[in-house]
Specification:
four-stranded antiparallel β-sheet; eight-stranded mixed β-sheet; 42 strands; Rossmann fold; 736 residues; alpha+beta; 11 helices
Length: 736
C-alpha cells in the first residue's frame, strides 16, 4: 500500500471516529441546566462610558415566590438577581451584591463614580451607595423616620449633591396592610357599584401613593417636597433649580384604557424654597406624554398629528408643524401627520416622524427638511428602528433586521451625504443598545442564535467589539440544538415565518416527533430553555407565527400552525403521527382553541391558559379590569364587548366546544396564579371528564402563572417529569 493511500484511509477513519467521540462529550441539556442559565439586563451606563451596571438572574432565582401575596402593597415579591459593575475599559467585573438579592432600582451619579441602589433586606427597603472606584458598597441611611417606597425611582441632582426619591408617609404601612387584608381575607368583603373604584383598584392606588423627597448625599438631610401624591413623572433641569412634577389623579376604575378615567397636572417646585410652586398645566383629562429638551426647560408633545413645544417661562404654546401638513414631491400631495421623535443635543432642533420619514425642524418651526425618507415598499426592506441621533446632528443610528432571513445589527445614516452605512449586520442577535452620553462608548447585548445574551462594548462605529460577560460559557459543554428560519403560507395564502429547533441528536433522513410551542409571532432564533429541553429529548420544536385577525383570532392557530407543520412533513423531517402542541398563558389559550378545530395532534398541553372567555371577564380580580380591556381593545382581539358580540366570546371559549376535542389534554395550573386563575382551567377538566375524554389536570398549590415553572423547585421538576411522561405515553401509543 502506498504511503499516500495509507494516509487517505487513516484520515477517513479518524474523521469517522472523531465526530461521534466529540458528540459523546457534549452533555444533554435538561431541566437541571434550565435552572442555571443566566439572563442579563443592562440597567445603566455612566455618562463617560467607563462603568456599566448589569443584573443577572436565573430560573432558579425566580422559584419559591409567594404568589398569594401579589397586590399586597407592603410585600415585595422575592425576584432575585445579582448586580455587577463592569469596567468597560479594563473588562473587570465586580459583583456588587453578595449573591442573589431583590434589586428594585439603580442610578449612576453625574460624576460617573457612584451607583445608588435600592435593595430589599427581607421586606425592608434600603438605599445603598456603591463606589465603583473602590469597589465598596455601603448602606446610606437618610435622616428621616419615613420609610423609602419600594417602587421609588432614583434621580440624581445634576451636580451630584442630592438624590430624589419617594418616601411613605407615617402610618402608610398600617393603612396599606389593612386595605389589603380586608379586601383579600375579609371576613366580609362588600363591593358596591356606586363607588368610583373596584376594591383592588383602591389597594393598587395605595401602593402608588408616596412623598417626593430630596436627600442631601453629604449630610443625609431630607427635604420633603410634596404631600402624599401619585407621581406620574419628573423632570430636573440642568441647573437643578427646580423639579417639574406631573401628578396623576385617578377618577374611576378604567375599563377601556381611555383617558377619561384619570386627570393629570404639572407644576414646578423650587429646590431652593420648596414652598414656591408654579402650575404649568392645570388638571386635564389629557395624558401628559411630554418629552423634555436636554436642558430640561422646554417640552414637546404630539396631539392629533401635530407637534407642539413650550418653554417653562412661557404660557404660550408653539405649534411647530403649522402649515407643514401638505408634503409635495413629484406631484404627490399627501396630508401628513407628525409625531415627536427626539430632541437634538443642543435643544435647538428636533426630529419628527411622519409616514414619509424623519423630518429635521428647528424649534421655531421655520425650517423643516425631510432628512430620511422611508422606502415606498417598506416590506421589501429591513426593519429599521431609530436608536440614537448623534450630538452633531449628522448621524442617525438604526437597528436593522431583515424580514426574510436572520441578518440583524446596527446601521448608520449620514444626513449630509444621504448614505446608509452598515456598521454591523450578521446572523447574531442584538438587544438593549446603550449609547454613553459623553463618550464614544456603545454597550449592548449580543448572542449567537439559540444562546443566551452576553454583554458587549464597542465604539459607536462598532469597530472595537469586546465581550464583557461570560455568564453562560459553561453551555459549550452541552448540546444546543441547531435552529432554522422556516417560511410557509397559512390557509389564507399569507406568508409567515417560524423558528424550528432541531433534535439535539438529529440524523439526516430520519423523521422525528414535533412539538409546536405556540403563542403569537416568532421570527428570531433567541434562546428558549423550554425548546432546548424538549429538543434534547429528540423532538423537533416549532415556534410558528400566526395571523390573529381582529374579531376572529381563534382561527389563526389552525390556519397557521397546521400549515407550518405540513411544510415540514413535505420535507420529510416530521413524523405526522407524533405531533404535540403546547403553550403558556395566551399560548395555552391558543392550544385549547386549536384542538377544538383539528384532531391531528397526538397530545396537547395547556399551561396557564384560559378556556372560557366569558367567565374570565370576572376572573383575575387583583388586576382589576384587565380581562375586559384585553378582550375589547387588547391582546385577545375580540374588539367588542360581550354584550355587543356574545357569539364571538362563545367562539373564543374552548370549553363550549369540548365535545369536539379528541386530543388528550394535559392541563397545568398554579393555585396562586393571579393572572389566569386555576378555576378557569378547571372548567375544561370538568367538561372533558364529563364527556369521557382523556384529560389530566395538575394544579400546583404553591405556584403562579406558568404552573410548576413558577412554583417551588419540587414543582419545577415534577412538571417536567409530567410533561415528559405525557408526550412519551402518547407518542409511543401512536407508534403502537
Amino acid at each position: 500500500m502506498s504511503r499516500i493511500l495509507f494516509f487517505i484511509l487513516l484520515a477517513g477513519i479518524l474523521s469517522q471516529t472523531h465526530q461521534p467521540a466529540y458528540a459523546q462529550e457534549l452533555k444533554t441539556f435538561t431541566p437541571d441546566q434550565m435552572l442555571e442559565v443566566e439572563n442579563t439586563n443592562i440597567t445603566g451606563i455612566t455618562n463617560d462610558g467607563r462603568f456599566a451596571a448589569v443584573t443577572s438572574s436565573s430560573q432558579r432565582d425566580r422559584l419559591g415566590i409567594d404568589h398569594f401575596k401579589f397586590a399586597d402593597p407592603t410585600y415585595v415579591q422575592q425576584r432575585k438577581s445579582r448586580l455587577y459593575v463592569l469596567n468597560t475599559e479594563s473588562g473587570e467585573r465586580n459583583e456588587v451584591t453578595d449573591g442573589p438579592t431583590v434589586i428594585q432600582a439603580s442610578a449612576w451619579s453625574p460624576d460617573n463614580r457612584t451607583l445608588a441602589v435600592i435593595l430589599m433586606d427581607k421586606q425592608r427597603v434600603t438605599l445603598h451607595m456603591y463606589d465603583a472606584e473602590r469597589n465598596r458598597l455601603r448602606e446610606f441611611k437618610p435622616k428621616t423616620d419615613l420609610e423609602i417606597a419600594s417602587n421609588t425611582d432614583l434621580n440624581w441632582m445634576p451636580d451630584g449633591t442630592g438624590l430624589m426619591l419617594s418616601l411613605r408617609v407615617d402610618g402608610w404601612r398600617a393603612k396599606a396592610d389593612s386595605m389589603y387584608t380586608s379586601t383579600n381575607d375579609g371576613p366580609v368583603v362588600i363591593q358596591e357599584s356606586d363607588k368610583d373604584f373596584l376594591a383592588w383598584d383602591r389597594v393598587w392606588m395605595q401602593n402608588d401613593q408616596s412623598v417626593l423627597a430630596l436627600v442631601n448625599t453629604d449630610s443625609r438631610q431630607v427635604t420633603e417636597l410634596t404631600d402624599e401624591v401619585i407621581i406620574a413623572s419628573l423632570n430636573i433641569p440642568e441647573d437643578g433649580s427646580f423639579v417639574a412634577v406631573t401628578e396623576e389623579f385617578p377618577l374611576k376604575t378604567n375599563y377601556t384604557r381611555s383617558d377619561d378615567a384619570s386627570e393629570e397636572m404639572m407644576y414646578t417646585i423650587s429646590l431652593n424654597d420648596p414652598a414656591l410652586r408654579d402650575t404649568l398645566i392645570s388638571r386635564t383629562e389629557k395624558s401628559l406624554n411630554l418629552d423634555w429638551d436636554p436642558a430640561g426647560t422646554s417640552w414637546a408633545w404630539t396631539e392629533e398629528g401635530k407637534v407642539f413645544i413650550r418653554h417653562i417661562a412661557d404660557t404660550a404654546v408653539t405649534e411647530i408643524t403649522a402649515d407643514r401638513y401638505e408634503f409635495i414631491e413629484k406631484e404627490d400631495t399627501t396630508s401628513l401627520k407628525f409625531s415627536f421623535s427626539r430632541w437634538s443635543e443642543s435643544g435647538a432642533s428636533m426630529l419628527l416622524r411622519s409616514e414619509k420619514g424623519y423630518h429635521h425642524i428647528d424649534t421655531a418651526g421655520t425650517d423643516m427638511e425631510l432628512v430620511f425618507e422611508f422606502p415606498e415598499d417598506e416590506n421589501s426592506e429591513p426593519r429599521l428602528n431609530l436608536m440614537h441621533w448623534s450630538d452633531d446632528d449628522r448621524y442617525l443610528y438604526f437597528t436593522s433586521s431583515a424580514r426574510d432571513e436572520w441578518q440583524r445589527g446596527m446601521v448608520r445614516y449620514d444626513i449630509e451625504t444621504q448614505e446608509m452605512e452598515t456598521l454591523m449586520v450578521d446572523d447574531q442577535l442584538y438587544s438593549d443598545w446603550n449609547f454613553a452620553e459623553d463618550a464614544d462608548v456603545l454597550l449592548f447585548e449580543r448572542a449567537e442564535g439559540n444562546h443566551p445574551y452576553e454583554v458587549y462594548v464597542s465604539n459607536y462605529e462598532l469597530s472595537d467589539l469586546r465581550q464583557l460577560t461570560d455568564f453562560n460559557d459553561w453551555l459549550s459543554e452541552y448540546k444546543i440544538p441547531e435552529t432554522e428560519l422556516i417560511q410557509y403560507m397559512d390557509v389564507d395564502g399569507d406568508t409567515l415565518y417560524g423558528v424550528l429547533y432541531y433534535p439535539a441528536n438529529y440524523e439526516e433522513g430520519k423523521q422525528y416527533p414535533l412539538i409546536a410551542y405556540i403563542y403569537e409571532n416568532f421570527f428570531d432564533n433567541s434562546f428558549n430553555a423550554l425548546a432546548n429541553v424538549l429538543a434534547n429529548r429528540d423532538y423537533f420544536v416549532l415556534r410558528p407565527s400566526v395571523d390573529l385577525e381582529l374579531g376572529y383570532p381563534g382561527e389563526g392557530w389552525v390556519k397557521g400552525v397546521t400549515t407550518a407543520i405540513n411544510k415540514l412533513m413535505e420535507r420529510g423531517l416530521v413524523d405526522g403521527s407524533k405531533l404535540g402542541v403546547e403553550g403558556i398563558s395566551y399560548g395555552g389559550y391558543g392550544t385549547n382553541l386549536l384542538i377544538t378545530q383539528t384532531d391531528r395532534f397526538a397530545a396537547a398541553i395547556n399551561n396557564s391558559g384560559k378556556v372560557n372567555a366569558i367567565s374570565f371577564l370576572g376572573d383575575s380580580p387583583k388586576i382589576g379590569t384587565r380581562n375586559y380591556s384585553a378582550a375589547e381593545v387588547g391582546q385577545d382581539r375580540i374588539g367588542q364587548t360581550f354584550w355587543e358580540a356574545p357569539d364571538k366570546y362563545v367562539a373564543h371559549s374552548a370549553v363550549f366546544f369540548a365535545d369536539r376535542i379528541t386530543t388528550p389534554l394535559l392541563i397545568l395550573s398554579g393555585e396562586g396564579d393571579w393572572n389566569v386563575p386555576a378555576d378557569n382551567q378547571r372548567e375544561m377538566y370538568y367538561a372533558l371528564r364529563r364527556l369521557g375524554k382523556e384529560v389530566k389536570w395538575v394544579n400546583y398549590m404553591d405556584a403562579g402563572h406558568g404552573a410548576g415553572l413558577a412554583g417551588t423547585e419540587e414543582d419545577f421538576y415534577h412538571q417536567w417529569e409530567t410533561v415528559f411522561d405525557w408526550y412519551e405515553k402518547h407518542f409511543e401509543g401512536e407508534e403502537e
